[in-house]
Amino acid sequence: MDFxxxxxxxxxxxxxxSIACGAAGGAYLLWRRRRSWPFVxxxxxxxxxxxxxxxxxxxxxxxxxxSENLPFETLAWSVPAVAAILLCIARFxxxxxxxxxxxxxxxxxxxxxxxxQVNLYFGLNNSVADLLGTAVARIQPLETSLKRSPDAQPxxxxxxxxxxxxxxxxxxLRKADIPGTVSGFAAREAYIYLPPAYQTAARPSLPVxxxxxxxxxxxxxxxxxxxxxxxxxxxAEAHHGVAPVTVVVDPNGTGNGNTMCMDSLxxxxxxxxxxxxxxxxxxxxxxxxxxxxxxxxxFSFGGTCAMQMGTAHPEIFPSILAFSAxxxxxxxxxxxxxxxDSFDGDVAAFESRTPLVLMQQRNYxxxxxxxxxxxxxxxxxxxxxxxxxxxxxAGFEIEEHSxxxxxxxxxxxxxxxxxxxxxxxxxxGLPQ
Length: 432
What we know:
- This protein is an alpha/beta fold.
- It has 2 domains: 2-122, no CATH class; 160-428, Rossmann fold.
- 47% of the residues lie in helices and 11% in strands.
- The protein contains 16 helices and 9 strands.
- The chain has helices at residues 2-5, 12-30, 37-62, 72-91, 97-122, 128-132, 134-137, 221-224, 228-238, 269-284, 301-312, 335-343, 347-351, 355-361, 378-393, 410-428; strands at 140-141, 172-176, 190-194, 208-212, 245-248, 294-299, 319-323, 368-374, 397-403.
- The radius of gyration is 24 Å and the shape is globular.
């Protein structure tokens, strides 16, 4: 079973198997001797485009499941799957039992190819273990030996700390519940990365990075799509075992929830993220309490949330990593619906909590932000430039990067994260 869990879904034999299944399935469904069959194929393709367009409209505009349009690539790969279903149905009349069975298998082959390609675009599930959640399920709860002692004194500064020979070579992952003591917010489990330096007897006082994932989604997405552990292990290796204690927290409560990271009619999410989470980290983990050593980051919805936390609470999170952030938080494409559902239509109350408005009103000298977006994710590249310009004018130290050959996907995060960590390293004064 371990071998099966390690099978890659994004390259190697399985990827080629899905391509072969899709090609063979498509060829079988397209083949027919009847003269009218070309018209059936054309009709199926046109209907598939219509179905995908209709479902997208329902999800984005009617039900507000997503606050932005889905990437074109995912919609395009959905069309063959829907067309395969329609062609399979079209073959059923006057077909033998054998032909019907083969048609179903052919349809499944095309659906498999489409699903693999959509997953390949988003880069969320890189292996069978990621897809099934088995690797994440094996993460152990945070044990007492890794927690801060109530009477513990602050550890040595990491700039003067020397790594012992007995220091482990890799960081570890743990999970924990962070209660909404003040906010009353019910969050899902948080995941914690503890670098090699943290696992030593005389822990240094380490910086802190708080991360948020996209929406829909959850904290585990940073471990699968974001490849967080390997990213931070490489960083720690280059910095003598020192890396930020990283806590991936949940600002939404459920996979499809959307609190917009605000205190609103929906939830007290801002209070949870700005009070409950920092208080839990400081009381539970041996970390630096110097706010200059704290940072916040995220992808997509999480990147927007990171900008919100860094602009609303620069005294807590003076450094920001924002990957593919929106220009402002949203529940739906319709801004009026967002404001109505979250603030009962009070535009001023909503806007007073948005980064662009806050950056017009405040000076953020001493704060810094690293913004990145996939080069082909044109809408979010525009958002990135707008946010970066506003932040620069407000006094932020700014870096902005378009990640080549990447879209609105975890690939943009994976390839942008080394630069983001380097940005934090410079701000934190980590040893080289």
